[in-house]
Each structure stands twice: as structure tokens, then as C-alpha cells.
Specification:
This protein has about 525 residues and is an alpha+beta fold. About 25% of the residues lie in helices and about 30% in strands. The protein contains 13 helices and 31 strands. Strand 9 (about 180-185) and strand 10 (about 190-195) form a beta hairpin. Helix 10 crosses helix 11. Bound molecules: guanosine-5'-diphosphate.
Length: about 525
């Protein structure tokens, strides 16, 4: 096989995906279960990063440790049935930030993990919106089916109503809560019975039953499940690969990550249905072939908070070609060379040196202070991928320097953090240069800003939270009207000079809109031009 043929073969066996969910739906449990089913390159226990940490010294680590969260995790790589999976982390809980949305630029598929009792929750919905915008195919996993929850058909209705995707169940549950006995597989026709294994931390025991055995052994639960499965077929809720890839349908699986029920099937479904890496369009819309020379997209830049090691790790998704450690790449934004001597595969506290990578893989590059999220790196023929859009902020705070003697350092620091995409910086003539408004999707972004301004620029700051929760794009004409409204303000985003109207809440926004029907107010992500 030639080098190009090998790259295509490697790309075909890659599955690069993220789990999108609301906190507590079971993402960590699922991640660990997935890794246990496969031969994870990193030990599954490192996924949580909550226990057994090695001795760490930096303040940043202190922050992580105090909260018991993992800030450094980026991607977990594991192999399963001859395929290489890259599970890109979408940080949630207290470390929810703009990065959580940005990492979706690196994946080809998303697994939407729902709690059976709670259905579509707010954070799931926000992450789903990003998938919709990027047209990322979504596989739904209804988790915690071993606990009392909603009816299966009712959940399907909710998924369809909230996402607009047609649910096409791959598996249908037999019984629920304590009586969750197994599933009917609508793709391969198998009837699978689950048995709990002691400790739960290994594979679930699965036995295949004939319909006769199912009728005999599973009783009324089986009768009901098979009737419902027939109903699903009658209403045409069958999988259709084209519609799934076109972001019109979502295959649905039922299971319990904690007992490993349905986890192996999810991996099989990812192998069978999730798209492999495909040629990515550049800024002009031309596709960069997978076997073209190396190209990659920076989707996240992590600042190391340790004073002694003030480096940055840039996480790069390989889009084309083969990555080999040591190769010298070109940074599309500046045209400057970038040496990759220190390429790493990073997960949790573990860093291992990475020697080569293929389309779909994630590479961590250290000493990456020149790189920003959305940047392109390439070898050979030049290419630049479209930037990652800015997302709608929901938290706002005015930043001021504590010691006015440090005003210059403060300004420099704010500009730097804005350029790095750590936070969005908004300004207005009314507030002036020394009181920029910081806008974020997660509170941790503010903490990072304060920490870095103090540590790297010597500027201690005071942040005053503003009561706004909603931002929309507007135009100069509407801005005139909006400036006179109570509970609203118009600001300019430094990153792209976009005019943003911010509101205390959607009710205030709606009431202003009712009084002034002609106002331009567009959702931020949809207006991002991608
Ligand atoms: P995350 O916040 O989404 O990462 O959620 P975790 O994985 O930490 O899970 C939250 C809680 O739900 C934990 O107590 C888990 O043990 C529990 N949990 C996760 N999956 C299941 C499941 O399938 N069944 C049951 N009964 N509990 C689960």
C-alpha cells in the first residue's frame, strides 16, 4: 500500500466523537465504561482524574484539586474491534467554558447522553445546538434505564420535539428500572438479555434469546417491548444512514452505563454508523483531501498555570495527512514555522509522547504560545480552515484593575487573553477603556482571567458581575433604540467588532421587542457565518 493509501485506511478506521450531556447524566461513568470495553491507551481510572493524583504543585492544579475536577483532560484514545476511537472531552460542571463548545469543531459525531428520568436538560440542549449548527450526526444514549424514569415512547417524543431529529431506536428496552432485563436490537434482530456482574466494573453478561425463550423467560416485559418495537417499525422509525449523516435522524440506544448495559452495543454502533473522518472544507469551501499533506485544526489551547512551566498546550485535530513528531509545520495565521518536537498525547495528568497520528486523531503540542483556537497548521500545500465561531455568552462582568498604576499591564493582559479566546471582551464608550465587560459561557473563564492577569501581567483585578444573561447580535440602527432601554445594553465585541445587545433575561428582551417590533436581534451562533 502506498503512503496515501495507508493514510486513507487509517482514516477509515478512526471514529472521533464527543459525549454531550448535562452534568450528572453519567458522562464520566460512560467514558470509563467505554474505555473498559476497549483497550484504553490510558488507564480508565485516569478519566475521572478525581483520585490517585500524582504530586502536583501549581496553583492551577490546586484549583483543580480543590474542586475535584479535571481541567487538563482533552482526548482519550482507545482501540476497539480494529478501530481507533478518539473521545474528545467536553468539560462540564464547574469547568464549563467556551472550550466546551469549541471542542465540537474537532469531532465527526456526538453521543447525546440522556438521564432516563430527566430527558433533554439545559446543557445537553446547548451542546446539541452546536452540533446542529455544525451538522454533526448525533447518536442518542438513554442512560440510567435501570432506575425509575420516563416511558420510552414519551422520551422519543421529547427528543424529536426538542431537537427536530427523528429518533430511530437501534435498541428497545425490555422492562425498566429494577426489571430492566435486556433489549431488542432493531438493527440486527437479536434479543439480548443482560445480567448484572458483581462489582459492575467489568463487561455486562449478555445472553442471546430466541423469541420463544424471550416469551417464556421475560414474560409481560417482553410482550410489551415487542409490541412497542412493532409499533416503531409501523411508524417508520427505522435507521436510515443517509438521513442520520444529514443530521435529520438520531439512532437511539437504551442502557445503563453503571452496569455496562448497552455500552458494547454503543461501540458497535459507532463502528457501524458513525462517520469516519472526511475531507474538511477550507475557508474557500474547497475540500482538503484526507491523503493530502498534513493539516490540522487547533481547537483548544490550554495555558499551564504553573509559574515554573508557563507553557501552552495546543490541541490539534488532524484533518489530513500523517503527523510525525518532529515535522516542521506552517502556522497559517502568521506564515511562521512551527516545530513539533514535543508532540504529546495528553489525557488527564498523563502525558505520553506521540510519534505519529492520522486524520481524526488529536495531538497536543507544547510550547504553543503562538497558537489560538481555530488556527490551522499545515505542511506542503497551504490551507486554512474556517475559524471556530464565538458562542453566545451568558455571564457578564466588568473588570477593573485594583491598582491604577498597573493600568497598562491590565490592558495588555486583557488584549492577550481576548486574542487567546480565554474570554470575550466587550466594550462601550459609556464604560470606557479601563472597564471592559468580560463575557463568558462558564464562570471558570472569569477565574482563569483573574488568575492569569495577576500571575502573568502583575495586574490584580476586581470583577463586578452584571445582571445580564442573554446576548444577541444587533445592528447600528437597532442599537440606537436598545441603548435607551432599561435591562439592556449595547456593546462591541473586540474580537470581531460585532455589535451585541445584552439583556437581563429573555422576558425583558421579548418585552422590548414587542414595543419595538422592527429590531434586529439575531442568535449569535447562527450569525457566525459558518
Ligand atoms: P457526569 O456528571 O455526567 O460525569 O455523571 P457521573 O458519571 O459522575 O454520574 C453521576 C451519577 O450517576 C453517579 O452517582 C453515577 O454512579 C450515577 N450513574 C451513572 N450512570 C448510571 C446508570 O446507568 N445507572 C445508575 N443507576 N446510576 C448511574
Amino acid at each position: 500500500m502506498g503512503a496515501e493509501g495507508e493514510i486513507l485506511a487509517e482514516a477509515r478506521r478512526r471514529r472521533t466523537f464527543a459525549v454531550i450531556s448535562h452534568p450528572d447524566a453519567g458522562k464520566s461513568t460512560m467514558t470509563e465504561a467505554l474505555a473498559l470495553h476497549a483497550s484504553a491507551i490510558t488507564q480508565a481510572g485516569a478519566v475521572h482524574g478525581k483520585a490517585g493524583r500524582r504530586g502536583v504543585t501549581s496553583d492551577w492544579m490546586e484549583m483543580e484539586r480543590a474542586r475535584g475536577i479535571s481541567i487538563t483532560s482533552a482526548a482519550l484514545r482507545f482501540e476497539y474491534r480494529g478501530h481507533v476511537f478518539n473521545l474528545v472531552d467536553t468539560p462540564g460542571h464547574a469547568d464549563f467554558s467556551e472550550d466546551t463548545y469549541r471542542v465540537l469543531a474537532a469531532v465527526d459525531c456526538a453521543v447525546m447522553l440522556l438521564d432516563a428520568a430527566k430527558g433533554m436538560e439545559p446543557q445537553t440542549m446547548k451542546l446539541f445546538e452546536v452540533c446542529r449548527h455544525r451538522r454533526i450526526p448525533v447518536i442518542t444514549f438513554v442512560n440510567k434505564w435501570d432506575r425509575p424514569g420516563r416511558e420510552g415512547l414519551e422520551l422519543l417524543d421529547e427528543i424529536e420535539e426538542r431537537t427536530g431529529l427523528r429518533p430511530t431506536p437501534v435498541t428497545w428496552p425490555i422492562g425498566s428500572a429494577d426489571a430492566f432485563q435486556g433489549v431488542v436490537d432493531r438493527l440486527d434482530g437479536r434479543i439480548v438479555r443482560y445480567a448484572r456482574t458483581p462489582g459492575g466494573a467489568t463487561r455486562a453478561l449478555e445472553t442471546e434469546l430466541t423469541p420463544e425463550q424471550a416469551a417464556r423467560e421475560l414474560g409481560a416485559d417482553w410482550t410489551r417491548a415487542s409490541e412497542e418495537a412493532d409499533l416503531l417499525t409501523a411508524i417508520g422509525a427505522d435507521h436510515d444512514q443517509k438521513r442520520f449523516e444529514a443530521h435529520e435522524t438520531t439512532p437511539v440506544l437504551f442502557g445503563a452505563a453503571l452496569s455496562n448495559f448497552g455500552v458494547a452495543r454503543l461501540l458497535d454502533v459507532l463502528v457501524a454508523l458513525a462517520p469516519a473522518p472526511a475531507p474538511r472544507p477550507d475557508v474557500q469551501g474547497a475540500l482538503r483531501p484526507l491523503d493530502a499533506p498534513f493539516s490540522g485544526l487547533v481547537f483548544k489551547v490550554q495555558a499551564n498555570m504553573d509559574r515554573a512551566h508557563r507553557d501552552r498546550i495546543a490541541f490539534v485535530r488532524v484533518c489530513s495527512g500523517r503527523f510525525e513528531r518532529g515535522m516542521v509545520l506552517t502556522h497559517a495565521a502568521t506564515g511562521r514555522p512551527f516545530a513539533t518536537k514535543y508532540a504529546q498525547s495528553v489525557f488527564g495528568q498523563e502525558r505520553t509522547t506521540l510519534d505519529e497520528a492520522h486524520p481524526g486523531d488529536v495531538v497536543g503540542l507544547v510550547n504553543a504560545s503562538a497558537l489560538r483556537p481555530g488556527d490551522t497548521l499545515y505542511e506542503g500545500t497551504a490551507v486554512e480552515f474556517p475559524p471556530i465561531p464565538s458562542f453566545a455568552p451568558e455571564l457578564f462582568a466588568v473588570a477593573r484593575v485594583r491598582d491604577t498604576g498597573k493600568a497598562k499591564q491590565f490592558r495588555r493582559g486583557i488584549d492577550q487573553l481576548d486574542a487567546e479566546g480565554v474570554v470575550q471582551v466587550l466594550r462601550s464608550d459609556l464604560r470606557g477603556d479601563q472597564a471592559p465587560v468580560l463575557a463568558a459561557v462558564g464562570a471558570m473563564q472569569f477565574e482563569v482571567v483573574q488568575h492569569r492577569l495577576a500571575a502573568e501581567f502583575g495586574a490584580e483585578t476586581v470583577l463586578d458581575r452584571l445582571e445580564y444573561t442573554l446576548a444577541l447580535r444587533t445592528d447600528p440602527q437597532s442599537a440606537e433604540t436598545l441603548r435607551r432601554q432599561r435591562g439592556a445594553e449595547v456593546l462591541v465585541r473586540s474580537r470581531d467588532e460585532a455589535l451585541l445587545a445584552v439583556f437581563t433575561d429573555q422576558w425583558r428582551m421579548r418585552s422590548i421587542q414587542r414595543e419595538h417590533p422592527g429590531l434586529t436581534l439575531d442568535p449569535i451562533i447562527a450569525g457566525a457565518g459558518q
